[in-house]
Every structure is written in structure tokens, then in C-alpha cells.
Amino acid sequence: MLILIGVIGIRSGLEVSKNIKYPVEYSDYIVKYSAENQLDPYLVIGVIKQESNFVPDAKSAYAGGLMQLTEVTAAETARKMGVTNYDYMDPETNIKLGCYLLRTLIDKYQVIDTVLAAYNAGTGNVDKWLADPTYSDDGITLKEIPYSETRHYVQKVNNHIKHYKEKVQLSQ
């Protein structure tokens, strides 16, 4: 009996640990807006995990929300989508705008690592890097990312995507 209780306790503890290490909040919104924008939902989860760790009111010096959008980026994205009267800090709106932004970046850059670099460092920086043979041989793929923060960001998001694909099953 004690062994059974111990096993149940370990399994429960592992499940709680998994949920803490790999939280997935707002999965309905993630799945919905990923599908609308033809995105891998695990890409969106990886970005959210790195940007805010699923804290909806997360704020940095320049950005906010689950996907850490700046007010300027949110306004520009909402305008392109024809969305008016919005609160970019609202979880659903933040994911909706963030997914559209990711789709826009994928359409422009096509390579996910380049997309992630642009999401983190901005398109202006990435465009400069792609035009510089020091950082890109083909103008599409970055062989090197000069900003260490962005280089680590891309690595971390890719790791999150991998881990979430292994550990979390999404209902689609």
C-alpha cells in the first residue's frame, strides 16, 4: 500500500513538475490563431515560453503580453489586420497579433531561425545581416547572428519547441 501511494505521489509530482517546467496556458487561442495563420502551434508556444513564460501581463522595458509585442508593433500589426479598438495586453488579442506577425515574418524570411532573429532583434537588423556576407552567404539564411542575445534567443526558442513537441500534446 505504501509503495502504491509512493508511486502515485511520484507520478503526481512529475506531472506538477512537467506543468511548471512546460506550462501551456491559452492553448485554445494558440491552436486557433496558429491554424488561421498556418503556423506550427509549437512555434507559437516556443515564442511565448521564451518571451513571457505564459505570464499574460508580463512587461519588459519596451514590450508586453504573452508574446511581448511593443505598442508600435501591435498597432502596426492590428492596422494590417484591420483590427481596431483592441487591447494588445489581452491574452487572446496578444496571441492573435503575435501569430499574424510571425506569419508575416515567415512570408518575408522563410527560414524559422531568421524569423526568430527578426522577432527578437527587428527586421531592420536582420535585413542588414542578410545583406552582409559576414553573416549570410545566401541572403536568406543567417550563418551567424552577431547579437549574442538574439543568438541565444533563437537557440532557446528552438529548444522550447523541441521540448514541447516531446512533452505536450495539443488538442487541435
Properties at a glance:
disordered N terminus; 8 helices; single chain; mainly alpha; globular; Lysozyme; 65% helix; two-stranded antiparallel ribbon; 2 strands; 172 residues
Low-pLDDT stretches are 1-17
Could you tell me the mean pLDDT?
90
| CATH fold call | Lysozyme
- CA-based gyration radius: 18 Å
Structural class label:
mainly alpha
**Strand neighbour order, sheet with most strands:** 1-2
Query: In one word, what is the shape?
Result: globular
Helical stretch tally = 8
The topology string of helices and strands comes to HHHEEHHHHH
In terms of DSSP E residues, the strand content is: under 5%
**Largest beta-sheet details:** 2 strands, antiparallel
Instruction: Kindly provide the name of the CATH class.
Output: Mainly Alpha
- For the termini, the CA-CA separation is 39 Å
The count of DSSP E runs of length 2 or more, i.e. the number of strands, is: 2
In helices, the fraction of residues equals 55-70%
CATH architectural grouping:
Orthogonal Bundle
How many domains make up the coordinates?
Answer: 1
Write the SSE topology:
Blueprint: H1 2-21, H2 27-36, H3 41-52, E1 63-64, E2 69-70, H4 71-81, H5 91-109, H6 112-121, H7 123-131, H8 148-167
Antiparallel strand pairs: 1-2
Helix pairs in contact: 2-5, 3-8, 4-5, 5-6, 6-7, 6-8
Description of the structure:
This protein is an all-alpha fold and 172 residues long. It has helices at residues 2-21, 27-36, 41-52, 71-81, 91-109, 112-121, 123-131, 148-167; strands at residues 63-64, 69-70.
